[in-house]
Design a protein that fits this description.
The chain is of the alpha/beta class and 101 residues long. The chain has one domain: Rossmann fold (3-Layer(aba) Sandwich). The protein is built from 4 helices and 4 strands. Strand 1, helix 1 and strand 2 form a beta-alpha-beta unit. Helix 1 packs across helix 2.
Length: 101
């Protein structure tokens, strides 16, 4: 089952998050889907030479000053909400975020 990763969550995202996901993908052969702004994620994947990794686009980002509950309700296309929906829909087995959640 896939692991959905919030590529837009946390400090220095998406770069640091994508690099960590690429490392896990390569070392442990984990089925990872990166969630967030596709153009930014794809740029990081190109830099890492990992263009084959799966990306699921989400147009909104939960900012550090957003309330988590408010962001879930109001930002329906946030990487946080989209990642959780992937699990709810059975398209991923788990979701990980280092962001404001």
């Amino acid at each position: 089952m896939k692991i959905a990763v919030d590529a837009m969550g946390g400090d220095h995202a998406p770069g640091e998050v994508v690099r960590g996901a690429v490392q896990a993908f390569r070392e442990f052969h984990l089925p990872i889907v990166l969630v967030g702004r596709e153009e930014l994620i794809r740029e990081e994947l190109r830099r890492a030479g990992a263009e084959e990794m799966e990306v699921h686009h989400a147009s909104e980002i939960v900012e550090m000053d957003d309330s988590p509950g408010g962001a879930i309700r109001k930002k329906k296309d946030s990487s946080l909400r989209v990642g959780l929906n992937l699990v709810a829909e059975g398209k991923a087995g788990s979701f990980v975020s280092a962001g404001n959640s």
